[in-house]
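Researcher: Going back to the complex we discussed earlier. I've cleaned up the inputs and rechecked each line, so this should be the final set. Can you rerun the prediction on the complete assembly and write out the structure?
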Amino acid sequence: MEELENGSIANPDENRMVGHYWLRTPTLAPSKELTDTIQKTLDQLKQISRQVHDGSLQSPSGPFTDLLVVGIGGSALGPQFVGKALGHPQKDKLKVHFFDNTDPDGIDLTLAAIGSSLKSTLVLVISKSGGTPETRNGMLEAENAFSNSGLNFAKHAIAITGEGSKLHKYSQENEWLEFLPMWDWVGGRTSETAAVGLLPAALQGINIDDLLTGASEMDQLTRNSDYRKNPAAMLALAWHHLTDGKGSKDMVILPYKDRLELFAKYLQQLIMESLGKEKDLDGNTVHQGISVYGNKGSTDQHAYVQQLREGVPNFFATFIEVLKHRNGDSIKVDENGMDSGDYLHGFFLGTRDALYEKDRKSITLTILEVTPYTVGGLIALFERAVGLYASLVGINAYHQPGVEAGKKAATAILTVRESVINFLRQNTGTGYTTKEIASEINNLDKTDWVFKILENLAINQPEHVRREKAESPTEDRFSAI
Amino acid sequence: MEELENGSIANPDENRMVGHYWLRTPTLAPSKELTDTIQKTLDQLKQISRQVHDGSLQSPSGPFTDLLVVGIGGSALGPQFVGKALGHPQKDKLKVHFFDNTDPDGIDLTLAAIGSSLKSTLVLVISKSGGTPETRNGMLEAENAFSNSGLNFAKHAIAITGEGSKLHKYSQENEWLEFLPMWDWVGGRTSETAAVGLLPAALQGINIDDLLTGASEMDQLTRNSDYRKNPAAMLALAWHHLTDGKGSKDMVILPYKDRLELFAKYLQQLIMESLGKEKDLDGNTVHQGISVYGNKGSTDQHAYVQQLREGVPNFFATFIEVLKHRNGDSIKVDENGMDSGDYLHGFFLGTRDALYEKDRKSITLTILEVTPYTVGGLIALFERAVGLYASLVGINAYHQPGVEAGKKAATAILTVRESVINFLRQNTGTGYTTKEIASEINNLDKTDWVFKILENLAINQPEHVRREKAESPTEDRFSAI
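Model: Rerun complete. Updated structure for the full complex:
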């Protein structure tokens, strides 16, 4: 960890440094140049945020009221978690929306939620590589929506991406409002304390200085080489102990606080993408990882504590206790003078005990309150624990080779889709079975893809592709109209 | 299944019939009386919904604009899933909010989201037993919020609960607007097609007749005793095959459609609470169950497909493919003429292939579009698959004995809390360590509870309880002020 923080190549496959710790203590970065870049970007994003709030940066129709974040994975999960944990429906400075997928209907629903506020919506397009297709599609859909409403997208758009990336160039050519850099030494899943996480948070009105302080102080605590005084080391060791060092049990995350509802989803990425690896650093096949799921207590007690207590013993629980119940006074809800928060606390302790009774293990983390400071601390704690656990089991926590396979297959499928469309067009009016088409385009080994594509085309382009039903789907005939 | 549908005692531990199938085909109910009750309740809830929409049932301040559902578990997950799957931010007839926990801060956030619309908010309080503490607390918090705004809660409130329950009586004594019955032969997790699910959906503006038709037709399809033609039987057999009939693998639910994002959460309850059982019907210890998690594709590819493809092989995937991309035309997003939906489809097929390549198994369900009809069908399909799977492994799918343990422990903890408060009050001004207090109230074996309670009291009632820090938490002294 010390070497990693000093700038060694901690991600050997990609020959990269791993520097998310420098983001909250820039003086730690291995060169003055890096320190300055981090500080400059932080100053820049704070300035943007101030200007948006004071109206000196505004849309052609007036001050910004809404924020649309276009991003997926590490570029959405952090802002979603932090925005929900620290936001407030009435006090937020901008109302935040997301395009976090390439689902056209989902995009339409988000646009409907924005409604007539589109004219005063600021758009952040976030993609580290600048080439993420879902984000590119989301950006083009957003651009189209603005243009359909007679609005100039460039006057609403800010890019956060790697310097020189496709997205960077596109933002320059189209004269977007601003550009903020992402660096190859920050992974998407550890980018909450980079511009990716900080700009949306700052724009929403969240105190990012406190968030950075919380993360920085947790980093300091988790540098302790005495593992008993290092909470991240204790956490990593507990994971190792509870999962036999090979992910033999799932991690169920149960925060007893509505604000933390998305933490499990955030950790799902941080932990599963970091630890879910086929090979260890020596190249041995190990199939590592820990599965993570959960929502919030006591709600989840009514969903699946039945199974946790009595069913397959294939998990350990991680409870997150939040001491403070609410701001302001509470009414009494029973004859013994208890309030709603006392019940929540009772359910947390009661569930923990009910699991313990049945030899289901758990870890408890306690925080005073959900604030930018504690959220920064939680993020840094789990980031470090993941890094330490990866060292314990000897894997690279900072790459994600398995993600590429799905992307490559998707690209191959889109190529087959194009061939199918071209073949049908060249033979307009004639009906073919799936197998005939697969054979004609030399994809007989991908007949399943061809069928799925034809089925999909007939539904989505009924004006171009016709499906004649037969006895069985394999006999159905497809033709271009 | 045939016996169950005919009214046999399919839930032997609780000596109850299991009748959620009758809800969508009331003529199937085992007596004319039951058929009439189901039909009458359905007519009643449709009438309420019509009256709310046409303004003949309105708040003292005018037509209802918002709906607050107070419920947890089966009384929230269904309405949340269906509301998100079939709702629309601009077209919904009422804007829907939830109190689905007893977190005071979460309640305050929901109230802040409702804001000044509280005066035109209709409240559904849903608890089958009528005694769920989280729901009781939520109701009292809502009542208090209305009263603080000078509003008469009773003129806004409808109860859905068992006839004669505490909640039913409370609603009668306080002259609430309406009451709708829940029956002991409908489980919370299978109550989406009872008033619990249908009234919120109808109020939101969702076509519940289509939802019921979809469920009813799926029920019909899944009555086929030829398992190859029975999709629920095929699903249950696949689960059995993939998890060795003992939950050896997790079920990862990946719908490629934003609208279905909450389906995994809904299924988490339906499947885990139904199948997660310690004993089989013969009383043998079996620790059954299947763990369920997931959100949506392609978003989740960026979160954890890395682990699914390369990491611990402890799961099987369930893809849900939705054929129709969107209503209306799409722009092209690349030089090959593809649109956002073509990409979504490519990612689904690509991920499925990438998993298959690594011998990670999956099931695919394909639906035309997310409509009330298909959502009703999906719900009925999984309800039946769960029932059939339970038969395969010989367990009772319709009780939840493990949930009681946590509730009992919570009650015990609240009693200890009361004792701690009483002891401190009787000894105002004097400081005691945790152990001293535990000893004084005869709970030495629950010293951990006593500490957690004292820590919590000092934070939430600083005007009543003082904590003096010492060298270590066990030495800290607590006193009443």
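Model: Worth noting: The first strand of chain B starts at residue 66 and ends at 70.
Researcher: Good, that matches what I expected from the previous run.
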